[in-house]
Write a structure and sequence with these properties.
Length: 109
Amino acid sequence: MSLQVAQRGYTMFKKLNIPVAGLVMNMNSVLCPSCNHMFELYENNLHQFDELKLLPRLENIPMSEDVKKCTHTQVPVVVSQPDSEISKTYFSLAHKLFHYLGQLHQIQP
Ligand SMILES: [Zn+2]
């Protein structure tokens, strides 16, 4: 379902010449609070989307207990728990986007 929405967005971005850095799989998995194992919630049907499957896979952002706590405290997880697995994922995503934007605009990071 959400990949169909992503496909519609991608089609619109292409029409408008808006560059697309890649694909972020958001909340299609769960990060176990006990052992940090990440497991997928849904069958991965990305292979059915000819254009999306060719995009760089930037990150998987799983559902996480650490993020759930942040919705109550209103402090971002990358601030409250910068060393957590989920924060590492967000930092990695930010890093990839930073480099993508640098290449896009020919600016040295
Ligand atoms: Zn576990």
